[in-house]
From TrEMBL:
Domain Tryptophan synthase beta chain-like PALP, residue spans: 6-282
Alphabetized InterPro entries for the sequence: Cys_synth, Cys_Synth/Cystath_Beta-Synth, CysM, P-phosphate_BS, TrpB-like_PALP, TrpB-like_PALP_sf
Alphabetical UniProt keywords: Amino-acid biosynthesis, Cysteine biosynthesis, Pyridoxal phosphate, Transferase
Pfam families: PALP (PF00291)
Modified residues (N6-(pyridoxal phosphate)lysine): K42
Protein name: Cysteine synthase
Amino acid sequence: MNDSILNLIGNTPLVKANRLVKNPNVQLYFKLESQNPGGSVKDRAAYNMIKSALERGEINKDTRLIEPTSGNTGIALAMIAGIFHLNLELVMPENSTVERVQTMRAYGATVTLTDAEGGIEGARDYAEAKLKDGDHYMFNQFANDDNWKAHYNSTGPEIWNDTHHKITHFVSSMGTTGTIMGTSTYLKEKNKDIQIVGVQPTDESRIPGIRKWKEEYLPKIFKKEKVDRILEVSEEEAKLTTIKLARQEGIFAGMSSGGAAAAAVRLCEELESGLVVSIICDRGDRYLSSDLFDV
């Protein structure tokens, strides 16, 4: 038995890909972050950002919290803020799926929708403008060390231990870059030869949760030296691989997971041998109102 839903964050399972990889000398494992209580990898960072800010006395029940989000961080923050009775406003583009918006509101958060053309950058600009008024607090997941430290303290050690120290490559989509920064830092401390592979969209591709940031919006927590290689995936490739995950591996996930999986499969086919771990960021039921699964 658990005293709190928060105790269920982390310790997510690894599951082997049995059909997507044709190379018999390489094993690919997916880390199912969809098994977190809030349904995504962002539960880890959200919990650490809120808990750490409370412990430092930076926020309390009277603080007006605001955070821009593309979806999963917002859901995680809404879930955890509700548990701590915190006042939270989430800002996201108006073309976000209705499932994500409704889930945030179900947890008790206020949701503000910004112009779709502005994307997540527009949501960030809106939140930062309100922050300048002086009566709001923003976690700023893009510059908050508590984001990547959550993965240094949990995701990295879990992967290292669950692969019995045999992991050779780690593949992760890059959005805020918290997952890849924290996991890379830990794994490289254990074995500097482990290759860290980041995933970005090709130019003109739109993949929710994966970004190729303009210089002025590049997350401050990102350190390029912690990523050995970057693979680009197209919108079509990410979508097709998301569908393959569901139909061939029974893994129901979102498009950012499909993008990471596509890059991981490509990587597996070029390696002579290895054990690759790729992050499954969230669940597919957050995208049913989109055209992701229309085939």
